[in-house]
């Protein structure tokens, strides 16, 4: 009887842990902590144009909490051929959102790890950047 109870508890803990890791989360739930915003338009995967002055950074701050990210990172090597990169300082860390095909986010560090979190829900932000 005790074995069944222990097995049931372990099973529940494993299921809850898997759900926590597999359910998407919001990388930036609070707009008040977003300090700096830098917006780049990347052309053909190699040249970037700083469009921060033309972009509505207040609207970008409002739309960032709508973006969802997978908790488990995936391996990614190349920048999309044509995308927007939004770099923000949030909670003392620099986070980069690459919006294009595919969309992903990563923390900017000195080692620049190729592990990224795939994004969803960035369509409104991408449309806003395309308009500008």
Q: What layout of secondary structure does this protein have?
A:
Blueprint: H1 2-22, E1 34-43, E2 47-50, H2 57-63, E3 68-69, E4 74-75, E5 83-90, E6 93-99, E7 104-107, E8 115-120, H3 123-131
Antiparallel strand pairs: 1-2, 1-5, 3-8, 4-8, 5-6, 6-7, 7-8
Polypeptide structure, described:
The longest helix is centred in the N-terminal third of the chain and has 21 residues, at 2-22. The protein starts with a helix and ends with a helix. Strand 1 (34-43) and strand 2 form a beta hairpin. The protein is 28% helix and 33% strand. The model has no long low-confidence stretch (mean pLDDT 83). Strands 1, 2, 3, 4, 5, 6, 7 and 8 form an eight-stranded antiparallel sheet that branches. It has three helices and eight strands.
What brief labels describe this structure?
132 residues, alpha+beta, 3 helices
Using only C-alpha atoms, the radius of gyration works out to 18 Å
Count of alpha/pi helices: 3
Number of strands: 8
Q: How much of the sequence is in beta strands?
A: 25-35%
Q: How much helicity do the residues have?
A: 25-40%
Tell me the series of helices and strands, N- to C-terminal.
HEEHEEEEEEH
Distance between the termini: 65 Å
Average pLDDT reading: 83
Low-confidence stretches: none
Biggest sheet overview: 8 strands, antiparallel
- Could you say which overall geometry the principal axes of the C-alpha atoms support? elongated
């Amino acid at each position: 009887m005790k074995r069944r109870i222990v097995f049931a508890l372990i099973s529940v803990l494993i299921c809850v842990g898997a759900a926590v890791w597999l359910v998407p989360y919001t990388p930036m739930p609070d707009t008040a902590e977003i300090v700096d915003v830098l917006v780049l338009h990347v052309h053909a995967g190699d040249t970037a144009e700083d469009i921060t002055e033309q972009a509505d950074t207040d609207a970008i701050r409002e739309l960032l909490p709508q973006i969802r990210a997978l908790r488990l990172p995936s391996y990614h090597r190349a920048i999309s051929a044509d995308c927007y990169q939004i770099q923000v300082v949030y909670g003392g860390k620099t986070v980069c959102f690459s919006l294009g095909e595919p969309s992903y986010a990563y923390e900017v560090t000195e080692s620049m790890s190729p592990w990224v979190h795939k994004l969803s829900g960035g369509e409104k932000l991408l449309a806003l950047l395309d308009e500008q």
